[in-house]
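QA checklist item 7 of 12: single-chain prediction sanity check.
[x] sequence parsed
[x] length recorded as 425
[x] structure emitted
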Amino acid sequence: MKIKYLYAAMLIVITAALLCGCTPSDNEIYSSSVQQTEISEAVRTSAPEASETAVPEVSEAPVITSESLPAAEIIVEGRAAYDMPEEFYTRLVEIIESYPHFLYYDISLAYRDIETGYTLTINPDKHYYPASVLKAPYMLYIYRLALSGQADLEQKLVYTEKYRREGTGVLKNMEYGTEFTVEELIGLCLEESDNSAFAMLRELYPEEDYEQYALSLGITHKDDAKGKNQPQLCCESALIFSQAIYDFIEENNPCSENLRYHMTHSRNAMIYGGEGSEIVRKYGWYEGYFHDMAVVYGENTYLLTIMTSLDMLVIDTREYDIFRDLSKLFAEYSDKLSEKDGDGDFVIINIPKPEGFEMTLPKDPYMLLSVVNMKLRDNYKSFDELCEDLDVPPEEISVPLEKLGYVYDEKSNQFATAEKEPEQT
């Protein structure tokens, strides 16, 4: 286990570029047992933004151990007049070593203390499809329009067939012709992550204007400000959105309480904030992406975003536990920061993957299924091509997956259950 501290010596080298050009500008407490009532079968559609789903139900998987995995190494860079204590970093490495996911997937995190401005990021250069995390800044944008007289929250819109979207939400099961106010649709977007409600609001308040608003907050990556056409998001841009949400709530304007209420009643609690805390959050989930963005109100108020490329097939209690363990770490240590002026202080942590390890396939069958399907989706046109490139006998993959009930389907280029082929996206 190696931890490299590079503070003072890196002061000249570490520039704004390392921060991706970004500048600083619900609550149910998470339990280790995921509420299975919130877990449903995934529904995929042709439009990514319309395919947000609840976490798919899966059977209990074997416990994954970190045996034979290389010891975690983290590289710490940045500058800070003060920092988290040594035991924080020790515990962070223990978490990384306990989850093989850090080796196979991208996992990023951004933390900011509201009082001091102290910021800590993990793998900040990674960009992800934001999924329904996008709905939070978009609803903030509509509330800003309402405050300036450019939007009427009591305006009624009629739900029709053209707005119906699969995935998360309740409108898809309602009768066409039902009326909703803009405020009601905002609530459905933030609480139920309703894709149909989002479609109605985006037509009324187009993406182009939203993108200008996002850029005005200080988002320097244009793709992070997009409202359509494959938007991207890094955890530092998510911090800017979270800061804007926090600032909006603190204004105590006529819409502040509405936003806070909706976001404290968001489904799928993933980030944990400590006992007695209140969390303003918006989760996002779509095949290959699993995120949570939050403002944590507790003894010490802070922003926390966790973004991942965890694959759809592997999302179960173990993946929720990654969010729980990382967020519990910050909940425990956030109040240990010095009260001295720390404005602008930042720490960047990079978790390098061991050289050559990315070409190694996991032994756990559920992880194997997820990683193989991810590689087939992103890198290979066929199962034979994957096996040849990785120099792996086909039966080394197919046999354990067949025991799980999955076989390779040439048409979809995925391992799917023999009973039902996966829906195409």
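[x] summary fact logged: The radius of gyration is 22 Å.
[ ] second reviewer sign-off
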